[in-house]
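INFO worker-7 received task bundle
INFO bundle size: 2
INFO processing item 0
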Amino acid sequence: MEKRNSLRRSGTTRRWWGLRRRWRMLGLFEINQEHEFYSLTCLMKEGLHAALQTSIDTPGPDELSAEHYKSEETQVHKDYEMQTFARLVFSSLRHSLDIKEEEYKRSLSSDCCYLQFMSNSKSKADFFLTNDKRFFLKTQNKREVKFLLSNLKAYMDHLEKYPHSLMVRFLGLHSIQVPNETKKYFIVMQSVFYPDERIDTRYDIKGCEVGRWTDPASTGSPVKILKDNNFEGKHIILDQQRSWLVDQVEIDTAFLRSLNVLDYSILLAHQPLHKDELDRKHSFSNLIVRTAKSMAQDSPTEEEHPTILLLEGDSSRLASDTIDSGSDHVQDTGEHSGHSTPSVNSTDAELWEFHAHHRRLLPNFKNSVHVIDGPELRYFVGVVDIFTVYGLKKRLENLWKSLRFPGRAFSTVSPATYSQRFCQWVKDHTK
């Protein structure tokens, strides 16, 4: 018996060390007691546990007010202070994504160590992942925090209008103040690449060429985030979902242009769809689940979403009028968004609303707002890094790069030019 237990422990140890080796290959390093960020991440986890317990104990109102966007709550701990910004706003966003507060708290304050994400990014920020790799934590400077808070209402309005937007989901904003040390701001985001078990290649796309190449064979950073020039000759194969992606990128970049923002990226990765996933993709039962997921992020009831009743009770109409089972689009049963709402019945009204908010049939998969299934590949897509404003510094940088790289496409251009070029890249590299 003792020998059997010893072998079992030995097998568990081997699996654990194998997992740690795999993390290192992906640029992930466990933040253990020897790590330089161990003390910081311990404070983050302890502070987040307390802050989220407050959110659980005092749920927010049904509607947000202007004061909720300005709120700052400070909790004093033994060796530091934790500040939480716009708590009820971010809690509302998590609720819309069907992220339960208890599971969010459990992930962020787990006894398991955070992971440090190392990449070839030029960002000076520090990146951490929860141990389950579901949520990213990124340090921010004060200017970025002020920018986000000043535009948080616009950001929330955009996600409410376009719930399937490709914009990264910010789930919390906090700061930690240790006596006699600089205040640390950090933001919690939903990871675009979750779950990532079968992802082996990632891209960061800006739609330009200067400085947009990463040598896949170079030494240094364990994980390689490839860039625009690495993607040349390749395409995102979506077939009938292509038009949705192109349109949504145009919608999201128009929003960013209105904020005078540039230098954002599309994070892109893919993995093959397994045969069982391909077989299940267009099954009728799966279509019902996907429609329920797509009509609302919250768990819908039949009374709230009569389209589910339509799917359960009228498969002939499903095939001919409502959903093309060979694609992930809902076909128009009325006029396009922007025109008068059909008044035939509640189902037609819901279908009109589906189009008006530019929804799609989400896959029956975790993190579905960032996942788009093509005929053979599953793509992970998200728009990130939205804090760079086209101010005086960037205008001077634009002038300098215009002289240094005449006739070439570089990242520092006006928001209008950046948006147009970004959208053109998506059109040129999708099929």
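INFO item 0 finished
INFO processing item 1
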Amino acid sequence: MPIESGSCASARQAKQKRKSHSLSIRRTNSSEQERAGLQRDMLEGQDSKLPSSVRNTLLELFGQIEREFENLYIENLELRREIDTLNERLAAEGQTIDGAELSKGQLKTKASHSTSQLSQKLKTTYKASTSKIVSSFKTTTSRAICQLVKEYVGHRDGIWDVSVAKTQPVVLGTASADHTALLWSIETGKCLVKYVGHVGSVNSIKFHPTEQVALTASGDQTAHIWRYIVQLPTPQPTADCNQASGEDEFEFSDKDEPDGDGDGSSDCPTVRAPLTSLKSHQGVVIAADWLVGGKQAVTASWDRTANLYDVETSELVHSLTGHDQELTHCCTHPTQRLVVTSSRDTTFRLWDFRDPSIHSVNVFQGHTDTVTSAVFTVGDNVVSGSDDRTVKVWDLKNMRSPIATIRTDSAVNRINVCVGQRIIALPHDNRQVRLFDMSGVRLARLPRSNRQGHRRMVCCSAWSEDHPICNLFTCGFDRQAIGWNINIPALLQEK
């Protein structure tokens, strides 16, 4: 009668254990629904001041947690059985290989290496599962505080900039690589005006502080000032865009992007020529903004200069030189004659025009890569964002070091600050939009799923603090702008 070898016996024993384990898993799965029903009955039988919808959501979340840890426990048991089987097989092989015995040290080395690999697998699985659980909590909170209200679709190429009018009627403006700027009804998402005066990419748009006039900067080396007249349509009831949908992270292909012809922007009134064209740059004009009062405008260009113009005469007042590389953005102070310019040379500069006879400049050095934007806030603060994945808050009275630094996982594009509440909106290359306070504390991340949010790089953000429907707007290279409603009191309470 043949004698069964040690390796065959251990293999058969492991097979029986796996069979027993698979039966236990089936029994576990079959009882999940019964256990969930029992937990729901127990919860309903308890006195609670929570609404039933909130209680049901909590029950589902805790049920997910229990299932995740139960699966981890089962997998851990299986991994331990595999380690024991492997050790037994190594011990058996050590007695039969080439008729020579392996030393205990060699056996320990092999077993330790295999155990280390399995332990690493267990740690990876645990981290992935717990991260998913934590993400589910954060996603639920973000969706309750940050809600998508409206999508503005009509451009044929990526949108570089978004801005909100400062005068009535309040409209939304977008600047696109398709050579156009569009004005939108915030409430209905309908295109109201199309500007087609540029022959290059429209890189920025800003509204005059008191008149129905817009300022756009373009890749055709000019900035245009043009007048618009709009009549707001009557808002229509819209479907809820905030239904829960799938996993929070979802990969998109180009075919999923909005169709540029889908919103009828070609049917809206068209403005074909500017009131004034500002021409002095020798390169792409990447950004433009109005100085306080609206009588002067500043432009930033890839020719490494920023220009200050008189709006009425179109004459060049100052050429601001000093940056070593292309400029990326410019911004003006809301109440003072101050300008800040940012550049690929890793710096941003503060230009002071409060004294008409002389202008001074201060250089801020603190980033290690392109400064994509720098903007003013209330008081004496400037916030700068960079491709080095950081955002820094600066005090204009102390330029040597920032008073707060925000570190992120992706390059930061054109940032914007909610002046009244001191909340910074950070648009990222990785399609995320995050909200921070001025001290660097993260407040929320805008929801992004397979049904809502941006599908490509988010280029810009803009706050509209007084609008009753949407108070934050974002735009991206997926050819759409999005209006969000941010529950700021709840956001600050969560903090």
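INFO item 1 finished
INFO post-check item 1: The helical segments are 6-44, 52-96, 104-145, 488-494.
INFO post-check item 1: Residues 52-96 form the longest helix (45 residues).
INFO worker-7 idle
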